[in-house]
Amino acid sequence: MLLFLPVIIIGIILLWQGADFLIRGGQEIAKNLNVSPIVIAITVMALGTSLPEFVVRVLSASSGNTDIALGNSIGSNIANIGLVLGFSVLCLGSVSMDRHMLSKEVPFMIAAPVVLFFLGLDGMLDRLDGIILIAISALFHLVLIKRVREGKFRRMIEDIGETVIQKEKRYLFHVLAIVLGLAGLILGAKLAIDGALGIALTLRIPTLIIGLTLVTFGTSLPELATSLMAAKRRQGEVSLGNVVGSNILDIFLILGVTLAIVPIPIPRSVLIFDVPVMTVFALLLFLVLLKYGKLRRREAVVLLALYAAYVGYSFLK
User: Fold this and answer.
1) In the predicted structure, residue 304 carries a pLDDT above the cut 80
2) Model-level pTM greater than 0.85?
3) How far apart are CA 304 and CA 60, in angstroms?
4) Which CATH architecture has domain 4-316?
């Protein structure tokens, strides 16, 4: 079992370096295009840090390990709020959210577990369910594009061609930084996951529990690394936007594409416990932000405690 530890350590180092490149590249592109960093976080960074989940789900589902694919889909959403966001806020002190994001993007995150619950009532998530999820993902991106085109971002849309031409070399460097960052995140996550899976399988832990907890922790490391790096750079809105965007993409796009390739059965135990827990975490985040407009350390402690309780119960049930 000790042979897996160096693999995990190397993976974590790659994750941190990848997150640093991703944050730097995203910040500079946002600055040059006059785009809010949170828009970059919800789109480019969220998609990039969700790639490990996509790889894990498609590979595990296509090889017959559907429990890992399903567990990772649900567990990642819970971990992103309870662990990633909770730990990031604990480091930052507080993270605020603008009202546009609260009213436009967060409702999609709340809708994700609700839609998943109703689609899974028949005990199977099939290709039609995958198409439905992908369609909702397309709607989310249309809403996001509409937001970008409005108000202070309209000028950026009109001038983007001229701006890119003027700063072509600078953009190439920042895009390369993002690509290198994503590569580091994906490779680092794979190494960390392989190490964790090796330990878990050695201890004979059920695959659904592995998917909900250990594999979820591994694939959430990019979000955690990116959020902590954002916290280090005092970019709290990037941390929050990355979590919200990742949770939306995880269910609607990544799980949707996975289901379009391979149908996945959903156990009743997951439907009546894990999916409702995912809903509670999303609603809790929304209600706290609605009331206070930000997350503080005391809310972060509650999120971390709830996540620890969920993981503990998952292993004991």
Assistant:
1) yes
2) no
3) 28
4) Up-down Bundle (1.20)
